[in-house]
Amino acid sequence: MTVLDSEPAATAERPATPEAGRPPRFARGWYLPYALILPAALLLIGIMGYPLVQLILLAFQNTNDFLHLANPALVKYVGFDTFQKVLSTPEFWQSVERSVIFTAEVVALSIVIALAVAALLSRVSGWVRVTVLTVLMFVWAVPAIVTGTLFRWMFANSSGVIDYICYLLGGKGMLNHDWFASPTQGLYVVAAAVVVWGALPFLVLGFHAAMTQVPRELLEAARLDGAGPLQSFRHVTLPVVRPFLGIATALSFIWDFQVFAQIESLRANTPEPGYQTIGVYLYAKGIGSSHYSNSAVMSIVMILLMLTVLVLYIRQVLRTGEQD
Amino acid sequence: MAATTTAPRRSARAARASESSQFSGVGRSRTMTGVWNTIALVFAVVMAFPIYWMVLTAIQPSRDVLSAHPKFWPTGLNFHSFHTVTSDPNFAPDLLNTAIITIGAVVLGLIVGFLAAVSVARFRFTGRNPFVLAMLIVQMVPLIALIIPLYIILNREGLYDQLFGVVLAYLVFTIPYVVWVLRSFIVNIPRELDEAAMVDGCTRWGAFLRVILPLTAPGLISTGVYCWIQTWNEFAIANTLLSSANKQTSMVWLTTYSASPTHGADYGAQMAGSLLISLPVIIVFVVFQKRLASGLTSGAVKG
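The joint structure predicted for all components is written out below.
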């Protein structure tokens, strides 16, 4: 058995000679693993690799209307002109600014709430926990487009239930309050609520799962040593949860920075300029008004802006994988 | 090797430990549990309220929907809104399109992804590690950045406004996810089981069919459900690649419907439509709830 166990490591060092001395156990022929990954590799090259190349080419072209798309003869390579044009547009930087603020707000809110709820779930009775988890499962299942539509209705300025609840709670002037009149309120309150509501199920369930790995003995020992609930959370629970915390924060950043569907449906398919985060803005420019090259530049800038977090996330995932 | 074989035992012990801590509590007083229970239930009510409001609006008679003082309880059961949406000529075709696209993308993604996952989990070959790393990186490329080039390429290939084009586009996120999650599933199946099957006279393909495939089934189900949800709910790609009204998906249908002048203010119908198009996902979720929770921890946490 030990010979068998160490064998894969040995072949790993001589990958080019899979037939090394003895017949391989699972299948003969060096080509088999390649044959198995071939469909996936080809498809991904076709639908992701090729489009990414196309994206970079577009960024250096002048394909900014449908005519250029239909007549490749008109397409010219214009160097960094498109970059210069897009990067000197104030609207672009405003959308970047909105995305940064929105992402920071939503990530912080959803992570803090999710941590608090997960910590709460380890203190409640069994039936309460089942209730909360079941509700979260249902929330998780609701499509983003439906969430946006639903919140547009709940926050509507006539017959909207949120206005009515505010009114019942004492906000007398709130009965016909228009939450969407000011984009600042519409984006950073309503759209943020949409995204946080939709993000909580994954985060709470993830943190809850991570917290069940905290050894009970450690919590008891901490309590006997006189640690308060906050201290034992800080020094016992948090270190166990940290790997997932890193992954969850990075993933939330990645998802929230490119938010699109929720805002699009919240504003009934026509988000006003004040609602244009970078995803909404580049979609409106690229698909909405056929400025393909401009939009390609924005996409590239967006990926570059996310790059640090992406790299940190990938490193964290690889490190977590190694520990297992 | 040793680590992978002890992993199930370790997690079983952890589950048992957590279960006992959940029910006995760490020596907390009754009143505190009462307080925590109340806070948790308030949270559950706040989270559940939007869904409740969607259902309530859909079944409420329209005069109570459009009242300045909306009622928090059903004042009657009225299926008028459901009738309004289902009689929309594009509702049924678009729902069918969504089902076709979803099934296509999930099945293709699972088959192609499973083969690749077996390859990277069971073989060592040049290019294996770069391929696995690529699967991780590829999941992180923002979809919205790919929409324009995908549109241009599929348009050139004559796949614009075709359901198959959208199925292909959705493989962008289903394949890497399936490979990534199933890889860790298959790695955790002890190699000795394949060998035992072959010692007992199975061929390689027999070992594959009788050992790896059945043991990966739970993983296939949870990744399948996850991909199902992703594809069913996707909006931006479908909105770009499909233009004919009867070739769109339900998510595109809902945004078009609720932005139309005739139905823009008919929130009863919008909510009924929202509910109907969410049901397939909700049902899948309820049926596979347990598996999803475990898939979450094995997929997202372990990477």
